[in-house]
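// run 5 | inverse folding | seed 20
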């Protein structure tokens, strides 16, 4: 197991993902911090950045689709303007001043 991550390291991770993908991070500071705390806890518990809005399936291999950014984030952002947990948003969505709304969970085929 790797060493524990700090909140600061997780913030850098989310910033790198957003920059690489051309996304924005949730502008709601308190909400964003809650998601970062969840990601950090998951990393320190499981050894990888499991989506903070999803439960583990029991192993890294089983959880692979839900590793942040999850495999559902791209289609969710394309369709809804943000991912399931609303950590990542399209820049257009943010620029339009829209607020994330609950969306179906593709992990369980709700779409």
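// decoded
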């Amino acid at each position: 197991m790797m060493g524990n991550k700090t909140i600061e390291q997780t913030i850098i991770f989310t910033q790198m993902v957003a920059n690489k993908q051309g996304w924005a991070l949730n502008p709601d500071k308190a909400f964003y911090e809650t998601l970062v705390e969840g990601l950090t806890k998951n990393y320190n518990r499981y050894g990888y950045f499991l989506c903070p809005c999803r439960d583990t399936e029991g192993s890294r291999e089983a959880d692979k689709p839900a590793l942040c950014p999850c495999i559902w984030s791209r289609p969710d952002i394309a369709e809804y303007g943000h991912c399931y947990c609303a950590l990542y948003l399209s820049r257009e969505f943010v620029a339009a001043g829209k607020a994330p709304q609950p969306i179906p969970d593709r992990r369980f085929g709700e779409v």
